[in-house]
């Protein structure tokens, strides 16, 4: 992924979902 091109919408969504899934897993397990 080059820094010149903006993030693809789908890529951004995947990043956010992965992040949210990780945080949700951490909070539910804690």
Condensed summary:
By secondary structure, the chain is mainly alpha-helical. 70% of the residues lie in helices and 0% in strands.
Can you describe what's shown?
This protein is an all-alpha fold and 30 residues long. Helix content is 70%, strand content 0%. It contains one helix and no strands. It is elongated.
Q: Which helices and strands occur, and which strands form pairs?
A:
Elements lengths: L8 H21 L1
Through-space gap between termini: 34 Å
Q: State the order of secondary-structure elements, H for helix, E for strand.
A: H
- What portion of residues belong to β-strands? under 5%
The pLDDT mean sits at 79
**Oligomer kind:** single chain
Tertiary shape: elongated
Structural class: mainly alpha
**Total strands:** 0
Q: What can be said about the biggest beta sheet?
A: none
Helix % is over 70%
Unreliable sequence segments: none
What integer value in Å does the Rg equal?
13 Å
Helix count, per DSSP?
Answer: 1
